[in-house]
# Entry
Amino acid sequence: MLKFLPIILAIILSLSNIQFQKENSFQVSSATSEEENKNLTTENIAPVLESQTNKSFNSKNTIRLTWNPVPYAVRYRVTYGNKVVVTPTIGVEVVVKGTDEVFKITALDFDHQVAAEDVPIVSTEINPKAPRTTSEFDKMSYPPLYLVYSWIPSKNADHYEIRLCKDGQVVRNFVTDFDSDEEISFDFYDDDPVIEDGNYYWQVRACSSDDSTITDWSEINPGNSFTISKPAQFCSLGDSITHGGAVTVPPSQTFCNWQTYCTFPVKNLGHSGDTTEQILDRFDDDVLPFKPEILFIMAGVNDFRLGIVSNYSIKNLEAIRDKCIENGITPVFITPTPINSARIFKTKFVEVPPNDWRFQRNEICEWVRQQQYFIDISAEMTDDEGNLKAYLTTDGLHPDSEGKQIIGKAVEKWISDYANANSTQEN
# Structure
């Protein structure tokens, strides 16, 4: 577990750099409880990035703070001086008027309860010139087929421009919609797969309401750069459970991606929102170019939560299996994860599923268990009433990091057992 300590950021301008000092306390707004106000001192000082140390500091400066995601947190409360800012991202930009400021980061769950006190600040930037991207492609064995672009919002931005570049040339452009809701997540889902071999990177910049740019393009770094190459021995095909992320973090970050918790490199061919029919429809275009030896298939949750009967889902899964065999691919089916209707009803993240969803899911699971190769994750993820265990999910549909670890480790064990069995046969 992370050790959460309070953070004090004190910035003092000198002739050549910015140094830090510790403060004992500060005046918090009425939105912060007295209990929280007791923990506002620390021995750990958040570092100013080296590239920022020679920047001038005036009476009104923007400071960008970043921190690591916290399990089950869907938003973060940033308290400084007499102000409180709430953000769904793992960072925030705020304006400070003085050369001394104290910050407290509190992680909140969906119910606005404290998930973690005093979340450590991992970096600070003074007067940033561009948004900070949060994608972690450098931490993934392969980049996902369907990219998600994510970033920390820039102060005063109305909307954003995004560009994807291949071998130094712009190949895609996007403009985000403006949403005044303070709970908006700063991520953008690309519905077109990235298949062609090459070296890629993506960038984002902030715009005002009149479409003029107010920041530079974000810097190119390992987290937003990646290489596409083929083939990929192991691939995973499915919906958002495979694509990754949850209500807590987007798929562009590794925290809630099951491939993160499998030591074998698995190419992620998942696409959020897909039914079994949609997965079948994109099989030829999305799977065959990568020529996988083994394909892990988890599908069906969007069928039974939407009222699609299991017989129809199973026919689609059978067609996917047959396509694998026709193309020399070993299909390994994974039982679809259950859902938690009570959490879905409470969070309203998606429509409440029909009452018979458990029966439809069980039918799919039984079919999966009859296949030559399968992985059954049901026992670890299902409670006595047939629901996704409440502690494994925030929104009722997607397993959070702990649930994704269960899936990733199960896939890892299957690959290890499969490799050992083949090695034994060869000997």
About this structure: The first helix runs from residue 34 to 37. The chain has three domains: 12-126, 129-229, 230-427. Residues 138 and 222 are 5 Å apart (CA to CA). DSSP finds ten helices and 21 strands in the chain.
